[in-house]
Amino acid sequence: MKKNKAFAAIAVAALSLMPLAACGSGSGAGGYEIAMVAKGFSQSFWVSVHKGADDAASKYGATVTFNGPDNDSQVDKQAEMVQNAINKSPDAVAVAPLDEAALTPALQSAKSANIPLFAFDTAFDKNADLITASVKTSNTEVGKVAAENFIKLLGGKGKYAVIAHSQTDATSTERRDGFLDYMKENAPDMEMVGDVQYSNADQAKAQDIASAILQANPDLDGIFTTNEATVVGAATPVESAKKSGHDVVLVGVDSGKAQQQYIRDGVIAGSVSQNPYQIGYKTIEVAVKSLKGEKVDKSIDSGCFWYDASNIDDADVQQAMYD
After folding, report:
1. pLDDT of residue 14
2. Are 190 and 265 contained in the same domain?
3. Residue 135 forms beta bridges with which residues?
């Protein structure tokens, strides 16, 4: 390990007293130094990732620095942060890539310096051979979990519609296909009306689509949506339908503030959430195990979970929620 380890531990301890905008650290002074660069920093999703990473660092005796650009449009800034992290010669670097091409020079730099690389939240494609392991949510599993609960809510019978947020984004298509495949295999008595509709992650467009579907299908029993903007958009016409006596089961993905409130109010029946806390925790866990010479899987699923009005305020659920 590095000669300046003691100094680094003192510096990290001092920085931990600063506001969140500086960096985070685990309490494991004298252990591995792991630099994490996320897609963002102050957004609640990344705050939860950060917390999970710090807790894992404390358990495994590591020191973690956590950084990220102000928003996910700052591709060049993230690439600079990754290169700066590599320049400090940590034991490992973990990245949630915004733009793989922009990060390629930094990844090559890490390879030249023999610094192991890990991915979190999003895997690398063309540079996958440079990555030791990736920790992310299985969006196919998200769709399956949504479908499983959707079937239970409707008693395995009825008509339903699907509104996805993108025809091309893998996040959307994997959730969509995971849902549809599970429905096809496990709900033979349920019928999908029309084709999958797409909101382009636009709340207003999702509202218009849901309104049109409900008007065209007065006997509709349920709607599945694939992200926060889409489910919140669909919630307005669903709420109106409920008030007029047409009870529609609305299910979504993600956990924004408005979405959580709609669940508490009974407009959205429930949603599937990623677990950003576990993304952070498992990233540090797998990095430490790999650094110790243990064999690790190339891809690690950080998990997802179903939440509704019955469990939304449970401590373990709230720990993983993000706005």
Report:
1. 36
2. yes
3. 120, 300
Same domain, 58 and 40: yes
Using alpha carbons, list the distances in angstroms from residue 2 to 27, 31, 32, 91, 235. 17, 10, 9, 9, 54
For residue 167, report the phi and psi dihedrals to the nearest 5 degrees: -85, -15
Q: Check if the beta carbon of residue 271 is closer than 8 Å to that of residue 223.
A: no
CA distance to 84, 214, 248, per residue, from 103 (Å): 12, 45, 45
Q: Which helix (H) or strand (E) holds 223?
A: strand 222-225
pTM of the model: 0.79
- Is residue 239 located within the same domain as residue 129? no
Residues 38 and 123 in one domain: yes
CATH of the domain at 113: 3.40.50.2300
**Residue 228 contacts residue 256 (beta carbons within 8 Å):** yes
Q: What is the per-residue pLDDT across 191-248, written as a single tens digit (0 to 9) for each?
A: 999 999 999 999 999 999 999 999 999 999 999 999 999 999 999 999 999 999 999 9
